[in-house]
Amino acid sequence: ITGLPVRQSIFDADRDFARSKFGVSNDTVFVLSMGGSLGAKTINENMVEVIKTLHNDKNLFFMHSTGKYGKWVPDKLRESGVETGEGTNVIIREYIDDMDMCLAASDLVISRAGASSLSEIEAVGRASVLIPSPNVAENHQFHNAMALVNRNAARILREKDLTTDSLKALMNELISDKAELANIEKNAKEMAILDSRERIADIILSLAK
To answer: Whole-prediction pTM value?
Structure first.
């Protein structure tokens, strides 16, 4: 699951600069959540509920990517009295086109467990709650996630167990324990394969010979 080439900007992004870009102080917990470019219905639904119940906590900052099929999310939040956008602690986007900045700024990532996402999470060394898609070949996202979980480099929440309460509980468990959060970050970073381009090039050259 690791070792996919990671965009160079992921390595170059500076955490302090990224947080200042979003107006997030050092004592604020930046929660980055996403379900892929199309959007994951269950993640969108549960993040709406999480944000509705926690947005008044100004020590939290939410950046959520809805995907193509989650365009209803901002309206649903506004109907519940949640202010979103610049100047608030809730930013909702259809698609994140500055993932390097968002990952650099984040403290906790809530995500599917595709190989590309995990490679980038490992590259920057971030704690994550992984929600594997059950609708993939050979349940490979579950096995991707477990590779991190077994090394205490992430937490897993299977979609069949995903509720607003279960997600909030995992978030609170991690956010409230700074030492464990740092330990998970370290373990994730240690799993990163940062020379994948060179390895792939070496294989190609060896085969060409």
So the answer is: 0.89
